[in-house]
Amino acid sequence: MTNDQYSFENPVTRYDSIAPPEQRQPEPGLDRDLKPRADHGEDSYRGAGRLTGRRALITGGDSGIGAATAIAFAREGADVAISYLPDEEPDAERIIALIEQAGRKALALPGDLKDAAYCRSLVERTVEAFGGLDILVNNGGKQVSQDSILDISDEQFDETLTTNVYAMFWITKAAVAQMPPGSTIINTTSIQAYQPSPTLIDYATTKAAINNFSKGLAQQLAPRGIRVNAVAPGPIWTPLQPSYGQPMEKLTQFGQDTPLGRAGQPAELAPAYVFLASGESSYVSGETLGVTGGKPTP
Ligand code: NAD
Ligand code: MG
Predict the structure, then answer these.
(1) pLDDT, mean of residues 276-283
(2) Cα 18 to chain centroid, rounded
(3) To the nearest whole percent, how much of the chain has pLDDT over 70?
(4) How far is CA 266 from the centre of its chain?
(5) Interatomic CA distance for residues 141 and 160, integer angstroms
(6) Residue 91 CB less than 6 A away from ligand 1
């Protein structure tokens, strides 16, 4: 990939239609061990000053969609804090280095999103390090596929809801108390909010909740000048998928059932987050932007 994100290449062939080899990683999975490796825009994303001087916090910013967004935000001129699980340190170190190479401040915030005190500390520590917070991206998430509801343990159900929904609530509440007018909140939902897979009952439920939370909160915060939007990715090649995110037979054909015929790369998500974070989207709030490879959303 030598072209930048403004390339007019054919979207069908812009990236290879990957047929990933069978692979399993323990949760949460490392980008480092993904086969083939994913593209986060390391060699392609070109900044244009669209987020100059902004201060951002991105959960799950070590890998996948969050990592691509972190790189793009930094190249657009924002200081970027990323949260991730302590086991993901190798992936996080790479992204921290890329933020710094863009000439911006980076802040590494390892910890567990299931811990409310940690979630609140993310906001405090970002404000302390950057002098404020203008962009919050609630992106960290847990997805574990199960063939039957009988296989979803109470523990899994609880952990999926806590990671994907409660953490978003805790972090957003702490952030709203600090955010000046002009700030933006972006939540990562999914095509699963509209088209739930039979193997992702608990996960898809959280993604519908995230969409609904975003649209309600957007109306509540509009008079304060804070916009809230969501991004709904389709199948994107990230460590979430081989770490029990998909049944093996689906993993090896990942994304091939989209109209574009291939899985998306994290790099293809970043411009959606940049748009919603920047002043260009000043009249956009309560919206969910689908980035689905052509799969229809309502
Ligand atoms: P990813 O594995 O790269 O990112 C998910 C991140 O969540 C991890 O890196 C990890 O840091 C974080 N995380 C998970 N559990 C955590 C916990 N308990 N504490 C702290 N951090 C935790 O995968 P991704 O696909 O880039 O996922 C990012 C978001 O995109 C998720 O919300 C996911 O649901 C959503 N999404 C992904 C796809 C896809 O096809 N990959 C599709 C739709 C939506
Ligand atoms: Mg990760």
Answers:
(1) 98
(2) 21
(3) 99
(4) 9
(5) 8
(6) no
Candidates 194, 203, 244, 273; catalytic one: 203
Domains annotated on the chain, with CATH? 34-291 (3.40.50.720)
Q: Which amino acid is at 260?
A: L
For residue 3, give the H/E element and its range. Answer: none
State in Å: Cα 163 to ligand 2 middle: 14
How far is residue 141 from each of residues 18, 65, 102, 159, 210, measured CA to CA in Å?
23, 11, 26, 10, 11
Task: State the distance from the centre of ligand 2 to the C-alpha of 141, rounded, in angstroms.
Answer: 9
Average model confidence (pLDDT) across the chain: 97
Q: Is 28 in the pocket of ligand 1 (CB under 6 A)?
A: yes
Question: What is the side-by-side strand order in the sheet with 55-59?
Answer: 106-110, 79-84, 55-59, 135-138, 184-188, 227-233, 288-291
Q: Which amino acid is at 103?
A: G
* The ligand 1 atom nearest the CA atom of 237: 41
The answer, yes or no, to whether any atom of ligand 1 lies below 6 A from the CB of 66, is yes
* pLDDT tens digits for range 220-275: 999 999 999 999 999 999 999 999 999 999 999 999 999 999 999 999 999 999 99
Handedness of CA 233, 235, 236, 239 (dihedral sign): positive
Secondary structure string (H, E, C) spanning 228-286: EEEEEECCECCCCHHHHHCCHHHHCCCCCCCCCCCCECHHHCHHHHHHHHCHHHCCCCC
162: DSSP letter: I
Residue 268 structure tokens: 């293809």
Give catalytic status of residue 203 as yes or no.
yes
Model pTM?
0.98
Q: Is the CB of 233 under 6 A from ligand 1?
A: yes
